Structures are given as structure tokens and as C-alpha cells.
Amino acid sequence: MKRSAKSRSPRGGSLPLRAPRPTARSREAEAAAAGLDIPRATYRLQLHKGFGFAEAVALVPYLNRLGISHLYCSPIFAARRGSTHGYDVVDFNRLNPELGGDEGFARLVRALRAHGMGLLLDFVPNHMGVFDTGNAWWQDVLEHGEASQYARFFDIDWRSPKPELRGKLLLPLLGDHYGNELERGRLRLHFSASSGCLTLHYYDFRFPLDPASYPIVLRVVLQRMLDTGEHGGQALAALIGKFEQLPERGNLAPNLSLARQRDARALQQQLADLIACDSHCAQALALELRRFNGRRARPASFNRLHRLLDQQAWRLAYWRVAADEINYRRFFDVNALAALAMERPRVFAATHRRLLQMIQQGEVQGLRLDHVDGLADPGQYLERLSNAIGRRLGRSQRPALYTVAEKILAAHERLPEEWPLHGTTGYEYAAELTRWQLHPDGEAPLNRCYARFIGERLEFDRLLYERKKLVMNTLLPGELNMLAQQLSRLAAVDRHSRDYTVPTLRQALLEFVACLPVYRSYVRGLPLREADAMHIDWALAQARKHAGLADPGVFDYLAQVLKLVLPAKLPQRRVLVWLRRLQQFSSAVMAKGLEDTTMYVDQHLTALDEVGADPRRFSLSTAGLHRAQAERIARWPHTLLGTSTHDSKRSEDVRARLAVLSELPDEWQMRVQRWSQYNRSRIHQLGELRAPSRNDEYLFYQTLLGIWPPSATALPDGLVERLQHYLRKAVREAKSISSWLKPNEAYEAALDQFVRDVLDQRPNNLFISDFVPFAQRIARFGLLNGLAQTCLKLTQPGVPDFYQGQECWQFNLVDPDNRRPVDFTWREQSLARLSATYSEAEAGALADRLIATLESGEARMYLVWRLLQLHRHQPELFRAGSYLPLAVQGERAEHVCSFARRYGEQLLWVVVPRWWVRLHTNATDTALDAAAWGDTFVQAPEPGSYRNVLTGERVASSMQAELAGVLVAQLLRRFPLAVLAPA
What we know:
Blueprint: H1 24-33, E1 42-45, H2 53-66, E2 70-73, E3 77-79, E4 89-95, H3 101-114, E5 118-123, E6 127-129, H4 136-144, E7 169-174, H5 178-183, E8 188-191, E9 198-202, E10 205-208, H6 214-227, H7 233-244, H8 254-277, H9 279-292, H10 303-310, E11 314-318, H11 322-325, E12 330-331, E13 334-339, H12 345-360, E14 366-369, H13 378-393, E15 402-405, E16 423-424, H14 427-436, H15 443-454, H16 460-474, H17 477-491, H18 502-515, H19 530-546, H20 554-562, H21 572-601, H22 622-635, E17 640-642, H23 652-658, H24 665-678, E18 684-686, E19 689-691, H25 694-707, H26 719-734, H27 745-758, H28 766-795, E20 799-803, H29 824-837, H30 843-852, H31 858-873, H32 875-880, E21 882-885, E22 888-889, E23 896-903, E24 906-913, E25 937-939, E26 945-948, E27 954-956, E28 958-960, E29 963-967, H33 968-971, E30 978-982
Parallel strand pairs: 1-2, 1-20, 2-5, 5-14, 7-11, 14-15, 15-16, 17-20
Antiparallel strand pairs: 3-4, 6-13, 8-9, 9-10, 12-13, 18-19, 21-23, 22-25, 23-24, 24-30, 25-29, 26-27, 26-30, 28-29
Helix pairs in contact: 2-3, 6-7, 6-9, 7-8, 8-9, 12-13, 15-24, 16-18, 16-21, 17-18, 17-21, 18-19, 21-26, 23-25, 23-28, 24-28, 26-27, 28-31, 29-31
């Protein structure tokens, strides 16, 4: 497996004692931050029906005592009923009633204000949940089609090349083929007596009928009344005539669209009134509805309903049809999430009305913007948002409010500096810390171990290329086909390109997107950004190598379009519309191909298979870590530092533990080979298919090791079920043996059985007897890694962010595992104990106790609490202080990261170790061993005396090799890391 070259400095990554030179970007960032509410620290809560505003209010005093400045909430606007995450918003102008609605939110705002805290809100500008009647915009589109005033709010292709879909919206949500579901009687026509509306019901789904199609039903009702001699037919006949006069759906002018909607509502109310006062008409309607709904034993009885449904602005379809024929842009491949055309000013205004009001009223102090790469033009959106906020608040800063964006950066990619942001949500920072804790000597043996275990050597670049193509051909072929057809229409404008066929253009696009090294480009016009031109050229060059096209000249044409080198007959505006869709598409392909497929196939070390990480890049030197902080403080000093998020595939504590394997690669290989031998009898054979596969078995051992509770000697309750659910999701995401589209139920059942058998608690289970002692030893080293990560996050440049519960140990897997309930009662009690017993004089004894009971999690709580108090009392030091790498000398220099933060007279000195296993000659001894440090010596920021804020100890710098400093053994005598202030 190809990996990056090892990088070591001769003195353990030491850098000279100097502050990074401020850049124009950093000066602009500081100017923009002036007067803004920049968080000291944020705390993320996942809100849902069972944990809403009231529960958040109850936590505010605890979070304030901990030192958190801003509560950071998952989306709070009205979402699909029963939503567990809030990203399926159905109404941007109404707060989620399941969270507590307006009253609950008002109480939360009051509680935050009472404690001097702010609110950072997660906002979803890219898409909406649409399979819920609460989405009035989507329901209006279903009812009126292109004539809806919201028809252009969503990215819908009303001009499908397929005749039967022109002017219609495909709704792929049926559990079986349309004809089968129709004749089983599962599609039922209903009439609402209160609103006068006709709707189709399918389980809990509701689909409004076009009012212009009501006469199909009402004329039959009228005929029945006439046949039976009932009176009142004249009123119904007059009403039918008015329904028939409604304008056809088509692409109506705005005034006609509003008139159609207004008239339709009035007619529906008249129909409701007629039915309410005319019992004969009501009875006739009820009878005809039953006949429209057919009888299961008679397929022909459904013909009338079928003809009625054919007249609608939507067409129901089997959910598997979505991949090929979907004609609205989705959030990735999720049919229930329709993308918004946020680039249109009217859409922006409608979706941000309530949010801007909340910001103006001081209820929201910061924003986290979800999935900006899904927008047609992220830069334009961010500018529009910042300007809108600035007008509301009377501010000229860019951005006008603390704002971060969820943006996944490639290893070589930079966040566009022209974007009015304070940074990202911190995926890249989490990857830095993981890589810094990986020992470079473990890379090659871990790769060999993995290759031997699974019986093949995976090449990551090739795997990613193939999986991106798989995603395009199986999950997103409809989007790719649409792009190819639109490009063909552009090519037809010029005689030099008109001969390129749709299949040829499709194949060229497929290869280009598969080879693109970033999520997307950001082409908005000429001139191109240098980074965009570089990425486009690289992808085209690689695509040429891979493609077997008969006419390779198509890549020359594609290059012209991508870089806007266009013939005079082709307006740039038309090309930019297409290019925006391509850029949105490539982002979805990378997300699904890398995060949700390749990272579930490549298992060489799962600590690296994380959102924002690059498994091809193994360890990071201390010098590299320092360089990353210098870059951050110069460009994005207020970015979020997120080490665990709701999107993490593994929590920071799981990754920190698995990083220990890089120090024990030989023992790990011995262990997994032995465990595999122990578990041979538990393997199932499904024909020629081994269950689990060697790859999934390797994933199982790493996953079990990552989440085994540190002090557990027996199987914890619920662990089997957690592993089963995770592995089932993992194999479906990998799309090798099973998938969400085609679940291999036999394989998944065998996998479930394997987990149960391997973790059987019988006394003679050799695997458990061998696994538990190893897991407990690795766990303690992992906890030390976890403390190190927390200390760095709380002292390096940026805003430290805590995912719910992570102030103590949390061994979570990917969602929904990371949304399990958090024991906040224990955390509140723990903080109360610490704050009640802490004193500077007794800090050393307290530190001794916390390290002796490291598994409890109180050591992490103590570290977070003490350092957040520093943030509270010296905010300028962390918000605007310089970052000074400090030299480390001696035999263990590579084990230490040391730096200082300085702001005026304020100074903080931080010393954080790594590679704990290799610090001990006896790898079974996890006690802190001062002798292991030998002559390792760290430079002090300046000569003088210092106080360790964690232990209360005082140390004085001495001279060694012309440097003033302190022996590491002296600094880490009582606690595994040191944070020091001038005494």
C-alpha cells in the first residue's frame, strides 16, 4: 500500500523559538474578529425528541461551571417527524416542536444569557426533508408542479429526456414496483372534509392531487347523483367547471402561478362547504372514492385510479428507480432529502428569514454551516449570508458573525481565503492529532500484517478510483447521465465538438470525476483560481491514462469547458450553470466514494479511516504538527478544533487507543493471527463465500479493541449488539459483499452469529482469555493518548470543541452509536467533586489520585476543567496569543511536543508526550516512569520559575547546551503532561 515517506527532524521536531510572521489573512482575521463574539470553547449537543430544549436548559449551569462559553446545537428548525438528528428540515421558519418549539427555545436563550453564554447553531442550507407533509413548499410543488411558486426552490429537472417524465417529479419511494403496489391496494385516494383536498395515501406518506385533475373524480360523482335523481348537482357541476378553468401547470408567470394557487384554494374550500352541507353529494363522493381505490382481487378495478395518477405533477416509482431516473438533486443518494437552489436570491431570503431574525435579536451568536460543498456556489452563498447578517447587526466585518463551515479538505488543499469564514469544523485537526500519535516505524509492519491477513495488498489510490466509479454507476448514474446530456447540448453549439456523443461525454466525465483529487473545484468565472486550474489539469491527465476512449480528443473539449475556454457562440453563463452542477456532483461522489465506501474497505489501521483524514498519510512529526499550528494561527486562528463530531466514524478515544498499535505492530500481528486461529470454528461458509470475510474479521478485531471498556474483565452489557449493528452498517457501506441497495441477508446473519460466538462468555473461550488482558493494557496507553489530545486541543490555536460527553471517556462508533444517551448526572457529580476538593496546595495529591484511577474518566474531566478556567481568565492569550514551538533535546526528544502561547505579558508553556509504550522497557508497565525520560530536556519559553497548573508543582529552568529549560522527567513526575505558567 502506497504511503507517504517518513519525516523526522534530527532533534525530535524541534523548531526555533520564534513566533510565525503574521500574514495579511491573519491581520484581516483579527480585524474581522474585533467586536465579535468569538467562542472560548463550544459544546455540541445532539437534540431530538427525547433530548430537547428543556434537557439542554438543565445542562447550562454544568457547562458554565466546566468553562464552556457557547452551547453548540444540532439543527433546531422543524424537521421530519421523529428525526433523531434534525438535518431533514421541513420548515426553515418554524422551530422544531419536538424539541420544545418557540417556548422551549426562549427558555434556553434565557438560561444561556443568565450564565453569560452564547449559542452556536448548526444550519442546513443545502437541502430539505421532503417526504413529510410538514414541508409546505414541497407539498405545493407536488400539488401544482411547475406552476408552484416553489417549483424553482428545488433543483428539479422538469425537462427530462424521458417523455413520460416531462413536467413531472419522480418520487421513488415505493417498496415495490408501482403496478404491484397499486394492485395490492396500498395507494389509497382520500378526501379531506375540512380542507376540500384530494390526496393519495401510501402508508404514512401523503401526496396532494393537482386541483385541475379533481374533475376526473367529481364528474363521476356528479353522474352518480344524476343517475340516482339526487338534487344539488347544479352546484357541483358549476364547481367542476371552475376547476377545469384553472391554468395548466406548465411554466407559468409568477402572477399566474399565484392566481392558480389562490383560485385552487378557494375552490377546494367551496368543495368542502358543498360536501359539508349536501349529504347526498358526500355519500356519492365516498362511494366513488371506494371504487377508485379498487379491489385487490380485480386488477382492472384500479384502472381509474391509475389514469387519475397519470394526470399528476408527480409520478410514484419503486425506490430502486431513483439511481437511474431521479430528476431532482438530492443530498448524496438520499431520496428523502431534496437539494435547494440556494443560489437564487428568493430561495435564500425564504430559508434565512427566521434565522436572520434570531441573529438580530441576539438569540444566536454563531453558525456552523452544514455541507457547503453541496451548494452551487459556496463563495457566493457565504458572501450573501455575511452581508445579510451585517445589515441586520450594523456590522461591516466579514464575516459579520462567528461562522464556520463543514468543509472536508484534501491533504494538500487550503480553505479558500476569500470566503468570509472563521474556519472549518475541525476535521483536519482531528486527523493531525491522530497522525502525530502514530509511530512511523509501525507503518510498514502494519501494512504487511494487514496484507498477510486478508491475502492481498490493497493500493489505496486504485481502490478510491474504482469506488468512486462504482458510486457513479450504481448510486448516482441518473445525475451523471443528466450532466452528460446537458454537456452534449453545449457541445452541439460548436461544429468542432458537436460529434461527441452522449456515451462518450459520459465516460469522459466519469473518468474525470473519479480522478479529481479534491471534493470539488470552485470555478465561478474567469480568471480561474490557481488551485482550481491545478486540480482540473491533474484530474484530466489522470483520466486520459485510465480511459479507453476511441476518441481521446474529448478530454481536450472537456478541458476547454472546465476552464471556460469557450467558442464565441457558447455563452459563459450557460456553461457556468452546467459547471456548478458538475462541481456539486463531484463533491457527492467523493463523499460517497471515500468516506462511505473506501474507508469501509481499507482496514489497514482504522484510526486513519476518518472523515477529513487521508489513510495514505501515516505519521506526522512534531515539526509537522508545529507547522500546521503556524499555518492555522496565520490564516484561521478561530477555526473550530473538533476531535469528535456527530459525523466521526470513531470517537477520539477509539482512535487514540488504536494509535497504540503503531508502537506494537509485531505483537498485533501475532495477536490477530492467534485470534483468527482460535475463532476458526466460528467462521461460516456460504457456498464459496467466507463469513466473515478476512477483511471484515480484521475490522472486527480492531473495532472490539477500540470500544472495549478500559476496566472491563467480562463482556459488558450491550456490546454484542453495538458490534453487530456497526458491522452490518460497515459491510453495507463497503459495498463489496452487501450494500444498502442489495443487502446480503445471509452474510449479515452469519456475521451477527460470528460476533455472538466469538464473545461467548463460556469459561473455555480462548479468544476472550487472550484478548481481555491485551485490551486492558492497550486501553491504558490509549487513555494517555486521549489526555494528550485533549491538552493539545485546549492549548493550540483555535476554538476547542467538545462533542457531547467527551469531557470524559467516550468509546463511540459511527452514528447512531455516537448518539447513545450520555450520563450527564455522573459528569455533573464528577465536576462537583473536583471543584469542591481542588486547591493549589493539594493539586499534586489530586493528580496522583486521578492517574491512579485513570479509567474512571475523571482525569480527562479535571484536565478539561482546569484548562477551560485558563481560557475563562485569560481569553486573549488563547484567542490572539502567538504560538512558539520550543526545542527538545535528548534521547527521547521525538516523544515530546513543547510550545508556548504568549500574549503581551501573559505566557503559557505546554509539554505533551507521545508514544508511551516505547517509553517503557517493559511494555506491560503503564506506570509513569521518570527514569524512562533519561536526559530529555525541554526549552523554557524564557528563563525563570514556573508553576504547573495541573499539579501545583514549581520548577525552575536551568541551562543545558546554551538553552534554558527543564528535564522532562521533572515536569512529568506526577501527571503525564504539563501546562505551566510563570510562578
